[in-house]
Design goal:
The protein is of the alpha+beta class. It has a domain of 77 residues. Helices cover 50% and strands 15% of the residues. A 3-stranded antiparallel β-sheet has the order 1-2-3. Helix 1 runs antiparallel to helix 2, helix 1 packs parallel to helix 3 and helix 2 runs antiparallel to helix 3. It is elongated and about 50 Å long.
Length: 123
């Protein structure tokens, strides 16, 4: 069995007349695979979300240093908002409501952990 971590590919979402699907494009190749199985689609999206969430978490953890600027915190908030927009626009019809709510709550948790930095910090 091939583990999902071993498959490096981009993907896009298609909307079919009968059902929604996910197209996987193998990088540097012309191979396209369309997936209609709901549980597999959710696994792929879950894996993708977790990678992006982990990167955001590390970014926010690094914001607790003396060198952190207001623009650093702004960038973190923008990236959180971008991921939220992807969830609500692209993945909305492909994942269950419970999974979507879980992701949105995780993003809200991250948003609350972004430190508030002002321009006169340390002065």
């Amino acid at each position: 069995m091939i583990k999902l971590e071993q498959v490096k590919c981009d993907f896009e979402i298609i909307e079919d007349h009968d059902q929604n699907g996910l197209i996987l494009n193998k990088k540097n190749n012309n191979i396209k695979i369309t997936i209609y199985d709901q549980s597999l689609i959710e696994k792929i999206i879950d894996d993708n979300f977790n990678k992006k969430y982990r990167a955001l978490l590390y970014m926010i953890m690094s914001l607790n240093s003396e060198d952190t600027t207001e623009s650093d915190t702004e960038l973190a908030l923008i990236k959180i908002d971008d991921l939220r927009k992807i969830l609500l626009s692209k993945y909305f019809n492909l994942i269950s409501k419970e999974l979507l709510d879980k992701y949105l709550n995780l993003l809200l948790f991250l948003e609350q952990k972004v430190p508030i930095i002002t321009n006169n910090r340390g002065r």
